[in-house]
Write a structure and sequence with these properties.
The structure holds two protein chains of two kinds. Chain A is an alpha+beta fold. Chain A has three domains: 183 residues, Aldehyde Oxidoreductase, domain 3 (Alpha-Beta Complex), CATH 3.90.1170; 313 residues, Aldehyde Oxidoreductase, domain 4 (2-Layer Sandwich), CATH 3.30.365; 142 residues, Aldehyde oxidase/xanthine dehydrogenase, molybdopterin binding domain (Aldehyde Oxidoreductase, domain 4, 2-Layer Sandwich), CATH 3.30.365.10. Chain A contains 16 helices and 33 strands. In chain A, the strands form nine sheets. A seven-stranded mixed beta sheet of chain A has the order 3-7-1-14-11-12-13. In chain A, helix 6 links the parallel strand 16 and strand 17. Chain A is globular and about 80 Å long. The C terminus of chain A is likely disordered. By secondary structure, chain B is α+β, with helices and mostly antiparallel strands. In chain B, strand 2, helix 2 and strand 3 form a beta-alpha-beta unit. Classes of the chains: A alpha+beta, B alpha+beta. The interface between A and B is large, with 38 and 37 residues. The complex binds flavin-adenine dinucleotide and iron/sulfur cluster. The site of iron/sulfur cluster has 14 residues of chain B, from helix 8. Chain A: Pfam families: Ald_Xan_dh_C, MoCoBD_1, MoCoBD_2.
């Protein structure tokens, strides 16, 4: 019998390339005569450019050109009326400044150092206007976007009538993706209407589409390469002004131009998780049955685009509650546009919802895990549909057992270990399990190797590895003979890598194209090989790169089959997407996080001791890379819970901690042993593999688990992330000052 | 970064001469701070004088003092046998600083000379009296969670970010410097300055002087020591507050004690009054609380760093208790 490849902890197919430096990231490419760019960025937050003096900069050594709104080549696709449209801020269109850090010019020179130096010599004068960057102070500007209307079922604000209620405000600061690899691009116009790009992107096809719309050149004239991406977490889900600026500079000087932005610029040029404020109010009967939830959220956006995400989504269906109403508003500020950051929206919303459930559980004197089980939604209460699969209860059970939930003393501030306050907390998370449309081509060569191609992306989860496993299972070809190629716009269409949908979307297309290929081979064998004459494609056994008759009497290898027919290769292409099943079922992945924390009683320092995260993500294609995904999400969650906060000085609208030293992503020492478990049961409807998404749920809900554990340890409820030592201090110090 | 020239003298005299000839020149050792300052346009030297060829890498015992060359790397110093056995406080403080990679590059002299991490100081488009005298202090009316609670002025409320220096201040070290006029010795606690009206000056080293070594006298502080660093993440973060404690206890009496704090002032902050209050006393929680109370007298806080006073109060007690029971 053939060994099943999916579900195995297969090593990454590109692991060796990555650890030996063989993987080429966008900035590693070196077209002939390449020039280097540096950005000059606004130091004001609102107003207009009065003048740009480039005299000194142009005289600096090696400088080729300086491009700004004064001399940029026209962008035909810029909409005439709106400063931003669906393709974002129209960079270099005019002299308006909408946010601090907005690029005002791009300097091109023959070395990077020279470009950076010359950029420091560009003198920009501004006419400054009043800016707004403080959400709390700008609530009068709050408005609702049409995509995110008020939602209600049952009675509005029913929670107020409940015997036991809880209502509180939760705030999350602005967070920045900060992948290790900096953003940038290499742009090369090989003719006036032919453009080659080496990009850092989560979707080569969407880059191609945006460029096509903006520059109005044929799709086939735009080539986008992006085979390796050094992390993105959502920041590379669109084309940003920095990329358009580089493309314009390359157009003007007619040479390839490379831009890699600075860490500081990562805070203002490639989006962020918007800071938000949420009020959750909920009511329950004395025995813990939820009767009403009201969830109101406000988050920031830019002056020129309405960025929305699923902040209030989870509240609508997570619990079996008859009365739920939500409202989601935006406050436009003098900031660049946010973008989805891992677990987008739901990560924000789940902190409020899952903290609130925890708070309610103490009021009810019901175990927080028990309260969740008590209100478990067996069917989707928002859409009134069954779930395609939901093993949340099993996940709760696994997590509780592995963390030792039963040893928890329910009373807050009741447990101590080695002089530290100890606490246990838990939470749950969920994210839509999607399946989009993708096309994959399969080329079987006469040497028996199979190459699959699709314009998918890999920002690190191990896309190619999973695809090879899926293809191996369908075709019976050994994984070492299969190559999955991605990150080229010339490959068949695949959507961006986002929303935890790549395995589902591209994996389904891989599965389909492999079935198509087998059928093609079968037909070849049936028509050309005498022993197969009497069989049908369905009867043939496909194993170890061979076609075998049902009676197992005759075998022919793929190599022999192709060679016999003098075929150098067989190529097939298949497009795949979901069908009616999405209308019949609600499809979601679920996660459960348990955390055990220690809090230092006098300094307020929190140290997470142990984490157990359990995912209900359908069938797991690769248990090794999936585990890594979960751990990565958990580390992001630790940052959200304990350390990450981009801080603005609102007087200037400038960040004061825009570097890796001061913006604290968790380091190894912050990351405790993390145990990951998968329910690992197939979803019967979503796709051929039965796999749901994983990337987002790894993070969604996590911050609440930590915050809930901190409350259990200390009796202090922190509703404003991150939970830094100062927020846990007041109680300890007042205790100590009682002298 | 500005274009600059680069020289690599191999004698002390040549290094000092090179500095005398060029006023915008800077010595460079590990470069872990200077390069960031140059990239951000905070420091724009036209010449770098690389001092890594100078013979300043020795750690040796000279009678009653431990002599540490200015170019000794932070990681080597922390791991050195003489330091670990005689001055474990210094070793602990060093290991609490920065990250392993940075400690592998950072030198003793560079660590002492590192500049504040105040964000306004690093951002040339915001006001800062330290970077540009009379431009105003961005931090006083701005974000000042990391800033000083002791010894600040209306011109500057920055803190000195070093961990190593807190231990050296506690251990009564002496700084050896060389300049055009020869050598001189500066007590460690007089090396760094308070901001006063001249926040642009971090310390009392003259522009053309070079740190050659640090010396620590022999102490009985080998057992009851603690370096407590409270920070926002477990490693690779500057102190919110740090406390260095070294004491000598016999017959349940504190014979001799040193306490210094980091993250609270423009210089490593020795606590002489608290030391006095504990000398000759029993190492009890009550006495520690009294000392902590003395220590936080005169603390002045700003919009975002009010917690530092409470944190200092708690941390001093915690560090004292840890040292006493070590
Ligand atoms: C991200 C980050 C985190 C950090 N975290 C911490 C921390 O937690 N705790 C901590 O204590 N430190 C921390 N540091 C600071 C680090 O300790 C210093 O950068 C380092 O000690 C500087 O030493 P260096 O040899 O690299 O100095 P350089 O960068 O080479 O020089 C710094 C300055 O000292 C001058 N200088 C150097 N040697 C001499 C000399 N012998 N005589 C006169 N002048 C001299 C130079 O001219 C320059 O002005 C951190 C640094 C970074 C970048
Ligand atoms: S505190 Fe000092 S370093 Fe910071 S802005 Fe004020 S003057 Fe500058």
């Amino acid at each position: 019998m053939k060994k099943q490849q999916t579900g195995q902890p297969m090593n990454r197919v590109d692991g060796r390339l990555k650890v030996t430096g063989g993987a080429k990231y966008f900035a590693d490419h070196q077209p002939a005569d390449m020039q280097y760019a540096a950005l000059v960025c606004s130091t004001i937050s609102c107003g207009a450019i009065a003048s740009i003096n480039t005299t000194k900069a142009l005289r600096a050594p090696g400088v080729a050109d300086i491009v700004s709104h004064l001399n940029a080549p026209p962008v035909p696709g810029y909409k005439k009326t709106n400063p931003g449209d669906k393709n974002g801020l129209q960079i270099f269109r005019d002299n308006r400044i909408y946010s601090n850090g907005q690029p005002v010019a791009i300097v091109v020179a023959n070395t990077m150092e020279r470009a950076v130096y010359a950029a420091s010599l560009v003198e920009v004068q501004y006419n400054q206007e009043t800016h707004y960057t403080n959400m709390e102070a700008s609530m009068d500007k709050a408005f609702q976007n049409n995509r995110m209307k008020d939602y209600s079922r049952g009675e509005i604000n029913a929670w107020q009538k409940a015997p036991v209620t809880h209502s509180a405000q939760y705030t999350i600061p602005l967070e920045v993706h900060n992948p290790m690899e900096l953003a940038g691009i290499i742009a090369h116009w090989t003719s006036p209407d032919t453009l080659t790009l080496y990009a850092k992107t989560q979707g080569v096809k969407s880059v191609q589409e945006t460029i096509q719309e903006l520059f109005e050149i044929p799709e086939q004239n735009i080539t986008v390469h992006s085979r390796f991406v050094g992390g993105a977490f959502g920041m590379a889900l669109r084309v940003w002004p920095l990329e358009i600026a580089t493309i314009l500079a390359a157009k003007k000087i007619r040479k390839p131009v490379k831009l890699v932005i600075t860490r500081e610029q990562m805070f203002t040029l490639v989006g962020y998780r918007p800071n938000s404020s949420q009020t959750i109010s909920m009511g329950a009967t004395a025995d813990g049955k939820l009767t009403g939830i009201t969830h109101e959220a406000v988050a920031i956006t830019s002056p020129y685009e309405d960025f929305t995400e699923g902040i209030v989504a989870m509240t609508k269906f997570m619990y079996d509650c008859p009365n739920v109403n939500t409202r989601y508003q935006l406050v436009p500020l003098n900031m660049s546009t946010p973008i989805w950051m891992r677990g987008p929206g739901e990560a924000t919303g789940s902190f409020a919802l899952e903290s609130a459930i925890d708070e309610l559980s103490y009021k009810l004197k019901i175990d927080p895990l028990q309260l969740r089980i008590l209100n478990h939604a067996d069917t989707d209460p928002e859409r009134n549909l069954p779930f395609s699969s939901k093993y949340l209860k099993e996940a709760y059970q696994i997590g509780a057992e592995k963390i030792g939930w039963s040893s928890r003393n329910p009373a807050p501030r009741s447990m101590q270990e080695n002089g530290m306050l100890a606490g246990y907390g838990m939470s749950s998370g969920t994210f839509g399990a999607y399946r989009g449309k993708a096309t994959v081509s399969a080329i079987l060569k006469a040497d028996g190797t199979l190459t699959l191609q699709s314009a998918a992306a890999d920002i690190g989860p191990g896309t190619a590895t999973a695809m090879v496993q899926i293809a191996a299972d369908v075709t019976g070809i050994s994984p070492d003979k299969i190559t999955f190629m991605l990150g080229e716009s010339s490959f068949p269409y695949a959507p961006e890598q986002g929303g935890s949908a790549t395995v589902s979307t591209v994996g389904s297309a891989v599965s389909d194209v492999c079935h198509t290929l087998l059928k093609e081979l079968a037909n070849l064998a049936i028509s050309q090989v005498p022993a197969f004459k009497q069989t049908t494609p369905e009867q043939i056994i496909y194993e170890d790169g061979q076609l075998i008759t049902a009676d197992r009497q005759t075998k022919i290898t793929h190599e022999a089959l192709l060679q016999q027919q003098k075929l150098p290769e067989v190529k097939v292409t298949a497009t795949s997407q979901g069908g009616e099943e999405r209308k019949k079922y609600s499809m979601y992945s679920f996660s459960v996080h348990f955390a055990k924390v220690h809090v230092h009683p006098t300094t307020g320092v929190v140290r997470i001791q142990h984490i157990v995260s359990v995912a209900d993500a359908g069938a797991i294609v690769n248990t090794k890379t999936a585990r890594s995904q979960m751990i990565g999400g958990v580390v992001g969650g630790i940052g959200m819970a304990l350390t990450e906060e981009a801080i603005l000085d609102h007087r200037f609208g400038r960040f004061v901690n825009n570097n890796y030293a001061d913006y604290h992503v968790p380091v190894n020492a912050d990351t405790p042993p993390t145990d990951v478990y998968f329910v690992n049961k197939k979803d019967p409807y979503i796709n051929p593999m039965g796999s749901k998404g994983l990337g987002e749920i790894a993070l969604i809900g996590f911050a609440a688990a930590v915050s809930n554990a901190v409350f259990h340890a200390t009796g202090i409820r922190v509703r404003d992330l991150p939970i830094t030592p100062d927020k846990l201090l007041h109680i300890t110090s007042t205790e100590n000052t009682n002298t | 970064m500005n274009p600059f020239s680069y020289v690599r003298p191999n004698s002390l005299k040549a290094a000092i001469d090179a500095m005398a000839r060029d006023h915008s020149a800077r010595f460079i050792a590990g470069g872990t701070n200077l390069l960031d300052l140059m990239k951000n346009g905070v420091t724009l030297p036209e010449k770098l004088i690389d001092i890594n060829q100078l013979p300043l890498r020795e750690i040796r015992q000279d009678g009653n003092t431990l002599h540490i060359g200015a170019l000794v790397l932070n990681s080597n110093l922390a791991a050195h046998e003489l330091v670990k056995t005689q001055h474990p406080l210094l070793s602990e403080a060093l290991l609490a600083g920065a990250s392993q990679q940075l400690r592998n590059m950072a030198t003793v002299g560079g660590n002492m000379m590192q500049r504040t991490r105040c964000s306004y100081f690093y951002d040339t488009s915001m006001p800062c009296n330290k970077r540009q005298p009379n431009s105003g202090c961005g931090a006083i009316g701005g974000i000042n969670r990391m800033h000083a609670i002791f010894g600040a002025s209306d011109n500057c409320i920055a803190v000195h970010p070093s961990d190593m220096c807190v231990a050296l201040a506690a251990l009564d070290a002496t700084v050896l410097v060389a300049g055009p006029k020869g050598e001189r010795r500066i007590p460690f606690t007089d090396f760094h300055r308070l901001p006063g009206n001249t926040p642009q000056l971090d310390n009392n080293l003259a522009k053309n002087e070079l740190i050659t070594a640090v010396e620590i006298p022999t102490h009985p502080f080998t057992k009851h020591i603690c370096y407590l660093k409270v920070r926002d993440r477990a490693s690779y973060a500057f102190a919110l507050v740090s406390v260095a404690v070294a004491m000598d206890i016999s017959d349940n009496v504190i014979r001799n004690i040193r306490i210094a704090m980091g993250g609270v002032a423009h210089k490593p902050w020795r606590l002489p009054d608290a030391e006095k209050a504990l000398t000759g006393k029993a190492p009890t929680s009550d006495n520690f609380r009294l000392a902590a109370n003395i220590a936080i007298q005169g603390a002045k806080t700003y919009a975002h760093n009010g917690f530092k006073k409470d944190l200092a109060f708690n941390s001093i007690q915690t560090a004292l208790l840890k040292a006493a029971t070590a």
